[in-house]
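Re: beginner question about structure tokens

> Can someone show what the tokenized structure looks like for a real chain? I only ever see the sequence side.

Sure, here's an example I had lying around. Input first:
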Amino acid sequence: MGSMTLPETSRDINTTTRLETRETFINSLRWESLQSVSDVLKMGDSCAKLIGHALYFFSYSSQRGRTIYLEDIYVTPEYRGSKLGSALFDKVAKKGIETGCVQMDLVVLNWNPAQIFYKRKGATDITSEKNFNYYSIDRDAMEHLLAYKYKHTLVDTKSVNL
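And the corresponding structure tokens:
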């Protein structure tokens, strides 16, 4: 047999051990949120007002290892420009480093001006620069897929562990 040559795009693939994979899945089954609050005085009483949040979770890339996924970052309009969004973003990145993540992932709509912010923070648009495309299958499509699958028996479920 001849030697197998990996395509150039495979050069960045790192392997992880079975133990790392198992621990990552066990420890990744949760969402976390960073919240920023401001004290507000209301008729002599002090109460807290949510002024920003960052919602994230841990995931696993079969090519790279443990990742942290920034699902949402939001700052109320009156606090935008105060560097609160930057502080929340940095804290999510810090959490990723502290928990052994090899990358942070996020998705940004193509019209969102926050793309400039993320690029300044070191993010790479992998759609244009690394030839990745992000896909999503909505619920209707999933239901259609399953209805078709079971109607036409595409998979012998007796021989496949699902």
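Each token stands for a local structural state, so reading them left to right follows the chain. The chain has five helices and four strands.
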